[in-house]
Amino acid sequence: MQLKEIxxxxxxxxxxxxxxxxxxxxGFKIVIKTPIVTSAPTPQLVAxxxxxxxxxxxxxxxxxxxxxxxxxxATSSPKSGENSRFITIKSPMIGTFYRSxxxxxxxxxxxxxxxxxxxxxxxxxxxxxxxxIESEYAGKIVKVLVDxxxxxxxxxxxxxxxxx
Length: 164
Fold this sequence. Notes:
Layout: H1 3-16, E1 20-25, E2 28-33, E3 44-49, E4 59-61, E5 75-76, E6 87-90, E7 95-98, E8 114-115, E9 120-126, E10 129-134, E11 139-144, E12 150-152, E13 157-163
Antiparallel strand pairs: 1-2, 2-3, 3-4, 5-6, 6-13, 7-9, 7-12, 8-11, 9-10, 11-13
């Protein structure tokens, strides 16, 4: 199989939404897998010569998928100056971020609101389950970093708080 054919196959898998393709031809085996994510899938290519039972990949082309904002849940933000005292509350899971329990109700936490440790700040829906996200700190909301009803990734920053 020529490099150009492999590249065309990768493009086809990327656009089609297929999660896995496996082709074997004359002792040459190629497997292309794409992770299932909400953003555009990035194909992963692993080609192995099968007659000699080689376990090491001959060709490997992968690109890691990294969310735009990644930091640990409720850790100090490494920002300089005035923002260094703020704490970032991060998403503990992948799902849909909601600021209120229902569309008719007011937001659970807004900029300027003060809260105690254990207070519910938001809800994240994951697989039809609504998970209340509680604060690990007492403090005051400085900034809401995510829009209501938008998807969030694991470890994505949700709130910037000023600890009490």
